[in-house]
Amino acid sequence: MSTTPHILIVGNDSSLQSEFEAALGSLRKWTPVLHHARSHRQAVEVARSRHPEIICTQLEGDPRAIKPFAEEIQAVSPGTSVVALYRPENLGFGENEHTVIIEAMRSQVQDFLRRPLAAPELQQLLDRLLRRPTEVRRELGRILSFVSNKGGVGKSTMSVSTAVELARRVEPGRVLLVDVSLHLGSCAPMLDLAPTTSLASAAREKSRLDETLLRKLVARHECGLDVLSAPIDAVEAADIDDEALTRVLALARRSYDYVIVDTFPMLDGMIMAILDLSDRAYVIAQNTVPNVLGCARLLPVLLHLGYPRERTRVVLNNNFESAPGGLTLSDVEARLEREVDFVVPYQKRLITALNTGRPYMLHGNRWWGFGRTVKKLVDDIQDTLPVSRGAEAPVARMEGDPAAALAGAE
Length: 410
Ligand SMILES: Nc1ncnc2c1ncn2[C@@H]1O[C@H](COP(=O)(O)OP(=O)(O)O)[C@@H](O)[C@H]1O
Ligand SMILES: [Mg+2]
Description:
It is built from 18 helices and 13 strands. It is of the alpha/beta class. The protein folds into two domains: 6-130, 3-Layer(aba) Sandwich (Rossmann fold); 142-384, P-loop containing nucleotide triphosphate hydrolases (Rossmann fold, 3-Layer(aba) Sandwich), CATH 3.40.50.300. The structure holds adenosine-5'-diphosphate and magnesium ion (MG).
């Protein structure tokens, strides 16, 4: 890609044109060519014939209104990024800036620019969107989240096992595990990793986070899995909010084929943000009455949030040795009013795996019991949510000390 990207500006606001022209004058490296379209309709036609790298459209009123436009642009010019221009003072959505940004990202907007336009912000946006000249825009990766309304049911065990099994099957650096257990992250220790950066670092860098920076913040496990670990303490956790999480996940799915999200049991804005971007939610249940009852309440909530049955998988995890008087599979299915998709057997060696940081899917038996079920779960992911990114090579991971890299990037 040349350093003269084409930017299509949508709208008939003449001050916008002069703001752009003024900002362009002080750009380093980039000398964009501007095009104009009066309406979304006209912009779609221009995009179809000219394939601009970036389209800037105004965000006014309800950000969801951009969605049909962004989808049409994706269809006619898949390499084009849609950027929303907004004035914080007249968003007019009856909400704050933060909520509007989340809503716009749900509507396929890839980035944002505040007005009046400032040259440094435009420069950063161009760097973020156009930095990798050889990178071909890729199909988005899949986000799979593991949820439950209770702790201790096996979310972390299942997300780590799934992530490891997926990572074994693809090229290194194509699977990311994000630990969103804000208060008690367990993924890194389960993999014997002790990263110095975390989801909180990514949240703090949210405005300039790009693939290169994200890849500096993850820790690589020897099986090729990248891990964005949980914040180390509650102070760090305070840096993470639903907007930051949305940005991190939206970027992660552009950078990785599969993004596995380990969550914590809470139905708040953050879980909503995760579910919103997830292609599939794995609901983990245990075969105890209180847990199954809780799970029976969670499924309709998911349905209400726009999660039809096809987007959920129910996993019954027998993380207790079966005891007489326990619920049977048909009891559980009757209470849940749906079939259980995967029944995970009890595996006593998981505790050793947990304590030694040697994941069961790499060191345990994968041909029957627990290992076999995880393999089936991953077969189902690859069969039903394949990611085809052509022959393109993955972007190289930056080496070096992540903390130093972050400090250097200030
Ligand atoms: N299928 C299983 N068999 C035996 N132990 C299990 C199984 N699944 C989970 N465990 C154990 O149960 C405990 C809680 O699991 P964890 O994955 O941390 O739950 P959560 O993330 O939902 O809080 C851990 O000690 C884990 O090793
Ligand atoms: Mg957990």
